[in-house]
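User: Quick sanity check before I run a bigger batch. Here is a single chain. Can you write out its predicted 3D structure?
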Amino acid sequence: MTPVSRRAVLASGSLALLPTPAFAQSGLPDRAVRLWVGFAAGGGSDVVARAITPGIQQRLGRPVTVENRPGAAGATMGASLKKAAPDGTTIGLLPSTTLIGQLTSPATFPFDPLHDLAPLGIVGTFETAFVVSPSIGVRTLAEYVQWVKDGPPDRRRFGTAAPQTFSQYFAQLLGRQYDIALVPAPFRGTGPLSSDLGQGRIPAGCGGLASFVHQHRGGKLRILATSGAARNPVLPDVPTVVELGFPGLQLIDWYAFFAPAGLPSPLIAHWNRELRIAVESRDTQEQLTQYGVIVGVTKPDECTVRLASDFVRWRTLLDMPGIRTANGGGQE
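Assistant: Done. Predicted structure follows.
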């Protein structure tokens, strides 16, 4: 993982990031803030959280600690967050890919994002990426498909650090366009997945773009396609599913901050304001952009509307043949 830059830590030199008396008057208890991430260190969510943290810390004028709480593709952290005190000192960063679990596993998914959590705002969007190991010697998706079809069944394996999320289903849906049934192999984080890809222990993988950008640039893995509608500015050489002829697979995911339900409205409003200022500072934007994140902070209610509309879109994708859905409309 690339460490947070020294410029971000020294961002207190910017007037925009100075602590504000208004925030102190909003009712936030005078103690350190915990920022929970539902994935292991080094993955996309972790990178995004740590890039934003210095700006938040400067705005609040108090320590902000990032805590990794991996498990169940981020759902374990969400379940813990809903039980935390709604006083504003515990918040969490969740990718939208985690929340699809409420559709795929409604009986066991441990929280309802529309009722158990209070959205503080989306901070950026990202695409899902399908990647391969350089050891298999392919440079395009068409070459990969031919490589799979020409070999034994174990070539169909792909790694995912977020089982039962769009990070898994994207790869499977993409494979179905070429009449190949790709088989997911779970990993405990994109760090181990990237390592195995680099060493040729698994031929392919799928996950959030931020998890793979730097390894792609360094030649440790190769991104063959993204779920975007247009090529990401930091990866002009990587095509999208729309370009490849599969517009139905196009989907843009997002990172958002949440707090426990019951957080007072003044604190929600202040958190949204401080996040906007911290995330939209020049240094933070530069860092997030280098990881392929398109920065843009929404209002809390806009996050709720986006989540509700995405549930409809996710249902459409999950109802495609070959994907299990909550209502039994698909099959594996």
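The chain has a mean pLDDT of 88.

User: Great, the batch can go ahead then.
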